Amino acid sequence: QSVLTQPPSVSGAPGQSVTISCTGSNSNIGAAYDVHWHQQLPGKAPKLLIYTNSNRASGVPDRFSASKSGTSASLVITGLQAEDEADYYCQSYDDSLSGSVFGGGTKVTVL
Amino acid sequence: EVQLWESGGGLVQTGESLRLSCEVSGFTFRSFAMSWVRQAPGKGLEWVSSISGSGGTTNYAESMKGRFTISRDNSKNTLYLQMNSLRAEDTAVYYCASQGGSGTFHEMDHWGQGTQVSVSS
């Protein structure tokens, strides 16, 4: 059971948009800790996608955007492309655990 | 270019020990916190441990406390994870990751390629 909750999977046709939610609590996202998003392509190491709630990492296309509000955050992929098929993880910090926490991951499938 | 390279993984028996290393290049190592993150087969990412840039602050996930020790040698640009009393459930790919600042709450901004740890019962 992950501290941050994500939907196990989302899917969309090429060109469509998908949204991935990340729900935390008052000891992590709600405690004003930033949310970051990572992309893991099949068989590869994770890669930072979004940092500090809404900032795209270097080289990340502007099809990827993210936001944070209250105890939740979300990642939006617009204009879905085949190469976006991957697992996506949100990451934050938790006061009560004194450490980083991850969501369980969301598998994005391009139909 | 930032590079992180893990080594030290392998196949061990339950109760044995392993020491993972992560050599880094391309940034001022001592200025940034570092973390270990693992991924069991078919599962998601799990934070293991973090250490501040100076090495003065360390944190561990609950199930690793007392068994794992994180450390760093800033003169060698190397991060370590000493793993003792290994269990079958520690089987995973272990990644090292640099963080975006000296504190352990920052984003994990660069990742290594991972090293496989397999614990056989």
What's the quick description here?
The complex is a heterodimer of chains A (111) and B (121). Chain A is mostly beta strands. Chain A has strands at 9-12, 18-23, 36-40, 47-51, 55-56, 64-69, 72-77, 86-94, 99-102, 106-110.
Describe this entry's structure for a reader.
The complex is a heterodimer of chains A (111) and B (121). With 111 residues, chain A is mainly β. Chain A has no helices and 10 strands. Chain A has strands spanning 9-12, 18-23, 36-40, 47-51, 55-56, 64-69, 72-77, 86-94, 99-102, 106-110. In chain A, strands 1, 3, 4, 5, 8, 9 and 10 form a 7-stranded mixed β-sheet that branches. Chain A has a 3-stranded antiparallel β-sheet with strand order 2-7-6, with no helix packed on it. The model of chain A has no long low-confidence stretch (mean pLDDT 97). Chain B starts with a strand and ends with a strand. Chain B has no helices and 11 strands. In chain B, strands 2, 4, 5, 6, 9, 10 and 11 form a 7-stranded mixed β-sheet that branches. With 121 residues, chain B is mainly β. In chain B, strand 5 and strand 6 form a beta hairpin. Classes of the chains: A mainly beta (111), B mainly beta (121). At the A-B interface, strand 3, strand 4, strand 8 and strand 9 of A face strand 5 and strand 10 of B.
Comma- or semicolon-separated keywords:
heterodimer, A: 111 residues, mainly beta, 7-stranded mixed β-sheet, 3-stranded antiparallel β-sheet, globular, B: 121 residues, 4-stranded antiparallel β-sheet
SSE succession of chain B: EEEEEEEEEEE
Oligomer: heterodimer
Percent in strands of chain B: over 45%
Radius of gyration of chain A: 13 Å
**Mean pLDDT over the residues of chain A:** 97
Q: Of all protein chain pairs, which has the greatest interface, and how many residues does each chain bring to it?
A: A-B, 26 and 25 residues
Low-pLDDT runs of chain A: none
Output the structural class of chain B: mainly beta
Q: Give the overall shape of chain A, derived from the CA principal axes.
A: globular
Q: Give the SSE string of chain A.
A: EEEEEEEEEE
Which structural category fits the helices and strands of chain A?
mainly beta
Distance between the termini of chain B: 40 Å
DSSP helical segment count of chain B: 0
Strand content of chain A: over 45%
Q: What is the average per-residue confidence, as pLDDT of chain B, rounded to a whole number?
A: 96
